[in-house]
Amino acid sequence: MRFPSAFVVLGLSVGSAIAAPSSTIHSHHVVHEKRAAEPLNWALSHRLEGHKRLPLRIGLTQRNVHNIEEMLMAVSHPESPEYGKHWTPQQVVDTFAPSDESVNKVVGWLENFGFSRDKIKMSANKGWIQVNATVSEVEELLDAEYHVYKHAETGEEQFGCKTYSVPKEIQEHIDLIRPTVHFNHRPSPKSTTKFKRAGGLGMPSSSTGPKQSPNAKPVPPSLANCDKMITLDCLKALYSVPDFKPASKKNSYGIVEFTPQAFLAGDLDLFFSQVKIPCLDLSFLHGGSLSETFPQVLSEFGLRLCLSTERSVVVVAVVQTTNQSFDFNGESDLDLEYGMALVNPQKITLLQTGDLVEGAGFDNWLDAVDASFCTFEGGDVASQDGIYPDPLPGGFKGPESCGIIAPPLVVSTSYGQDEASATVSYAVRQCTEYAKLGLLGTTILYSTGDDGVAGDGGVCLNSTGQPVSNGTMFNPDFPVTCPFVTAVGATQVNPGSTVFEPEGACEQVIFSGGGFSNIFAMPEYQKSAVTSFLKNHPPPFTSAQFNNSGLSRGFPDLAANGANYVIGIDGEFSLVFGTSCSSPVTGSFITMVNDARLAAGKSPVGFINPAIYSDQFRDAFNDITMGGNQGCNTPGFTATEGWDPVTGVGTPNVSKLIPLFLSLP
């Protein structure tokens, strides 16, 4: 137990100091964060032992964050004179580094508490401070109590506190502290043998995309059956996709996967041979450097593709092949088969995060593309993210993959969590990182989820915003509600229709996630569109069901087909559904746009939202006016003219998008 030096001056021994009333010690403390939502299916078990050690990570308040939207708009809005003038990594670090005052205040607080300088570490960008301390010390420092929680079905345990406090005079200098109130609501991958996981963060399955249907026949040669089976030809016809022949060597496209989800090489071979793509560039970058056992790695995965060490799949931790089923291979097979095939022979960067023991979190792929965000510098914490090397049996023994590649120019992610499970401080901090990537020129795409206006597994919220089995309040997803990512919803070729007729919102097997954030304010770029929707097509719901303030972030931003995709999976063809289909396909389209701009000597498009909401780009999207996204025992929202919280501004017309983006500076 450590105490401020003032207690030592009074001549108290350590024993008598321990007896000092906590009300005296924390008389100037204020609650900084509370747990966002009590997790379903987890029960409080016991107090965490005081002698155990915690790697406490303190995220300092960053400078200029209040101006980040304005800064991002300057390089992203098509009418801005600064359009396309993306920042350098050093500019980002320098602009948002915490002030010296914040650093000194927080370090002084820790030293006054009793931590010596050698126990206090600071990240290179000054964003994070780490202190290794015992549970008892942390509890005293933060006026908190740490408890262990046990999952009802798996018996898995994790720990956390419900609230924590900091001195009032330093509160403005701290964004968040971890590990504290941030709780991973799902069991880790090690529990999958005992528990059918609900999917979502780390492992999509039967309740969060993609969804599986009975086996499909091999790819049909015509467009006649696109209402029953989506193929590459269907997508090209739906979205006016021109023949693609890469013209730039500077382009890049990244797809994020969370272990234990992993592709099977045989599935990729099956799919690519069927669609007559003879050669794909694929190689592996493992643990931060090209593997010395590169030929053996390729042999293990049995790839029969055209291989080149100049093309890279980045393995942040583990590509597992131990577990083989739709729940383990469906997401990765889908993402790579369509993402790669649409832009072949453009390189694809696979950001494979996590291992079979810890899984992974959003911070882990950010680590890989930004060294300044890595390990404690990014606030990675075991309850949310994979921490490497993993000492547990079967864990990944390699180092944390810190800044091993530059951020790909497009990144697609088909994973998420309920926004209600994230604290405001955590969500805002995470969202800020996506804005920084936008400033660097990267387009970040996230799928919106497959449960309509409900959350993971169809869970909704009660009147206090807590997830409950019989909730009636809509439960938006995260990170898609972050205004600095592009949220991608799902459409369908309506049964009995053709690709030459308008699509509707996806209502087969899944419902396109969409709605309004309970955390983030409406960004400037969508105010006109969203305000018009609320005024001209007011939803038949009250504030008891969704955030109807007219001031919150609406999503999705756009949409693409998410029904009846034919994929190779576990050695055969099958149909899948989900916004998990929509996001990587949209990523391929933006990659085509970037190729054209780079070949013309221009910058990548980066953050696309200000452009796609502008009047200039209106004709480049197919307006979706049919269908809805039911959930929480309601019909949900309804697709209608203009932007709507089911399909956004509509689906892309790639032949129109490319020249429009080419016309910009």
TrEMBL record:
GO molecular function terms listed in the Swiss-Prot or TrEMBL record: metal ion binding; serine-type endopeptidase activity; tripeptidyl-peptidase activity
Subcellular location: Secreted, Extracellular space
Pfam families with a match to the protein in the record: Pro-kuma_activ
CDD domains, A to Z: Peptidases_S53, Pro-peptidase_S53
Bilayer-crossing regions: none
Xref: InterPro entries: Peptidase_S8/S53_dom_sf (IPR036852), S53_propep (IPR015366), Sedolisin_dom (IPR030400), Tripeptidyl-peptidase_I (IPR050819)
GO biological process: proteolysis
Record keywords: Calcium, Hydrolase, Metal-binding, Protease, Serine protease, Signal, Zymogen
Name of this protein: Subtilisin-like protein
Organism: Rhodocollybia butyracea
